[in-house]
Amino acid sequence: MNPDLRRAIWIAILAAAVTSSLAMGIRQTYGLLLLPMQAEHAIAPWAFGLAVAMHNLVWGLAQPVSGSVADRFGAGRVMAFGGVFYLIGCGLPALFPHNLTVILGIGLFTGMGVACAGTGMALAAIGRMAPPEKRGELIGIASAGGSLGQAALVPVVYYATGWIGAAGALGTLAVAALLIIPMARLIEWRPQAGRPASAGLAGLPELARRSLADRDFALLTGGFFACGFQLAFLTTHLPSHIALCGLPPALGATALMLIGLFNIPGSWFCGWLSGRIKPEAALGWIYLVRTLAIAVFAMTTPTEWGTMVFAAVMGFIWLGTVPLTSAAIARRFGVADLGALYGVCFFSHQIGGFLGAAAGAVLLQTTGNFDAFWPVMVIVGALAAALNWLCRAPGARVAA
Prior knowledge:
This protein has 400 residues and is mostly helical. Helices cover 81% and strands 0% of the residues.
């Protein structure tokens, strides 16, 4: 790798870590705001849960579109728009707390914001810049750096909620999102010269049809559903579940922070692993370990130490699916349309996220607890492990 390319890649990795930290870190804090928004502004749990569920669904719908535009015109420009969407999405319910503004701001605008500025966009840009032999490892490093925000923003929001209220904490996040705009300039402002032409937005329907007709891409996409289903439920409802079990409310914030901290080495390790074994096989093991951890946590009486161990285990494999999935797609189809193809696969992830967040909110509203949800989480995770283990090696298409 020549020195100029190495320098450009590391600048882009640093910028991607900052933008992903903000885009992914902000959404990681929503679970801390559910009960305070209800107590301070009478925001109904169903409305907040619907907003987070919509956020996941809008993210999934927008990701293939934003990925296609980024493949054609450069990821940095799309990510800058993501910062603007986040500013509006967090600022609207901060200034005018109401069920409708929470649904519109968090559900619609921050969903578009994370689709434009989140990990998928940043990692597609890094994947295009990196040499093939280093692609998985460098994607893993960028993903690990992006996990810093998930750890750092949780205590910020927790303490800000105590000092200036839940709406004030949302306003703080809105201002922080502005940093995405200048950092996006350093990632991939224009398409690289000489790279293969992407299908672009006009070619997205045909690209999606062809990719989903591939048996193994379809299996990979089906497995990604479980990732969104499990993680969206835990991000949104784990703090409330902990509080309902009679444990200290601060433990919910600690659990989310531990998830972010352990995700840093976990994301790097999974990126490193993607260059050494078949990514789909590694994904199967991640889903199995995650599902076993959920089963043990659900079947035992919650304690402070048990919750922290659960958070650490989940954190290590939390977003390890992202570099592995990106690497699996790149091995099959190359990198020209990596953003769009990741978006197509990711839509399944976000359907799962919508169902996980929404079903948890409905269950809390109707029964007052989440007991009935844990067995469903286990079944979905086990099916995801099986789907990924059924995937075959990509074969000769990689060269094309």
